[in-house]
Amino acid sequence: MKKEMITIIGGGASGLVAAIFAKRNGADVTILERNNRIARKILATGNGRCNYTNVTANGLDYNNPDFVGYGLSHFSPQKAIAFFEELGIEPKIEGQGKAYPLSEQASSIVDVFLYELERLEIPVVSDAFVTRILRKQNGFVLILEDGRQFDTDKVILSTGGNSMPKSGSDGSGYDLAKNLGHHVTEVFPSIVKLKLDSPYLRHLEGIKMPTHLELLVGEEVIQTEYNDIIFGNYGISGPATLDISRKALELYRAGENPYLKLTLVTALDRRQVEERFLKLQDKPTDQSLVGLIHKRYISAIIKEAGIEKQNTLFKDLSKSEQVKLTDLLFNWRFKITGSKSFHDAQATAGGVDLKEIDSQTMESKRIPGLYITGEVMDIDGRCGGYNLQWAWTSGALAGTHAATGKAYDQNQ
Ligand SMILES: Cc1cc2nc3c(=O)[nH]c(=O)nc-3n(C[C@H](O)[C@H](O)[C@H](O)COP(=O)(O)OP(=O)(O)OC[C@H]3O[C@@H](n4cnc5c(N)ncnc54)[C@H](O)[C@@H]3O)c2cc1C
After folding, report:
1. pTM (global) more than 0.70
2. Assigned CATH topology for domain 5-188+348-404
């Protein structure tokens, strides 16, 4: 059988796995990477620890459960853990199923990739920025920015999305796909800090604590998270926010006016809080909140309740002020006004239209011999190891099929 010549555009998460699977399945593989080294983004993942999968990952953790379902049930998180174990990575499974290398270093993941590429004799051409993919009879020609050209039988497009452009994934893959006739859905940042419209951000900046956070449109609850939030002078971040950001921005972009609702007090119910205020009614209002909520919330929430003087005795507040203050402890709303940019985002929502990609092989339905992996396609997952899992899964499926013409076999 003829040995397939496969060229991978992008030496990031999905491209590296695609290369390894293609080579292990007998193909002649080359990686073209625009940077002077591979896997820059991997080094930044998981705050430098690389949360490389999530053992609970399933279709519902992604924007398109149907599309990812096949891949995740074949190259599953357990398969990813076994793949990395074989390369030398001992998994450390933390809360909520997040897997990290036992070394706690993202560089371990990069090091084992580098060793495996060397062992399999997969060449990496660095400083190789691909600007055009041309079709020719039975293959492709890849044109680089500096004029170099590479002939190949098959191409795996693994250029990443638009998040963290300084890592090399600046959206150039979308143009490559579009030039070949693919459609690209609207892209926007995901797993990203949200901007809020609030006069209190200066007071709230620096607050970091687990909070019950809800995404609302009108009175409809769209998503609920309980995890850390962090206030900044622009708005809000932290894991709970990052997880909500995808849906929040989708709604915001659709003109739906989404809000975040914070429940500052979760351990006590409303009656218990009212009893507390009754006991402390001789105290100034700000003092009546000390020990109940984070200190930095206090002056902001009193202002939001329309109370002019922070030190008014609680018993001297009007009934409606008392009710409003109590309400806010359980239901404080902030208008979402957008997000930080792709520079701050961990993932990209949108990308190459999934209708044009075979979900079992990652081969383009428009251009036979072209495969698309990872974040450049319209797939994004939650925060917590899900996006890298998709990179590994899509890379394994694409590399295997490109080399053999057969779908990835989970028993292999
Ligand atoms: C700060 C940060 C932290 C993250 N943490 C996590 C985490 O802990 N867990 C998790 O699951 N996910 C995490 N992610 C998301 C995860 O890193 C990505 O989803 C994943 O890397 C996507 O893999 P990819 O192969 O599609 O693209 P990438 O890994 O981005 O790789 C794309 C590669 O293609 C190269 N390239 C691009 N265009 C061209 C071109 N035209 N020619 C040649 N080369 C090109 C780029 O230089 C890059 O090396 C994080 C993301 C960021 C930004």
Report:
1. yes
2. FAD/NAD(P)-binding domain (3.50.50)
